[in-house]
Target: thioredoxin-dependent peroxiredoxin
Amino acid sequence: MFMIQTGDTAPDFTIKTESGESFSFHNHLEKDDRFHLLVFFRGEWCPVCNDQLKELEQNIETFKELNTHILAISTDEEQNLKKMKDKHSLSFPVFSDTERVAGEPYGVQYHNGKLYDDHGEHGEPALFLVDDQKRVVYFDIQTGPFGRPTAEDLRKTIKYIKKTLR
Model:
C-alpha cells in the first residue's frame, strides 16, 4: 500500500459535489491557488466528527486569513451529509466518498467492523494540508475517532508551514 509523504504531489480524485456535479481536485487547484485542508471524517452519525466540523466552521475566518480552503470528505451517504451540513450551517463543501476514490490514495484508514463494532464500514479521520503547488505539506491520519488536532493546532501548523515553506 502506498504511504503518502510530505512533499508528495497530492493525489487527484473526482467525486460528486452536494449538487451532484463532478468535482476534480486537481482541476479545482488549477483555478484556486489557496492552501486546501482536506478533512476526512467518519460520518454524520459521529458526534466527534460533528464537533470537529462545527469547530472548523466557528474558526472559518482564521482559515480565510491563512488563505486556506476547507474541503470535508466522508464515506457517509450524500443525504446524511447534506442534513449535517445544513444542521451546522457549514460554509465549506462536504463531499460523499462512498467509493473511497478520494480517501484511499491518501492512505485514509477504514474501519471494517471486524475488530470491534462501530457503525459498520467507514472511513476514519484524517487531515491533509495541500499547498498552492499541489504538494502535501502536512497530514494527520487516525485509526479511531479521538486525538484530532484542534482548529487552534491547525492554525499554528498552517502559520508555521507557510512561514518556513520553500
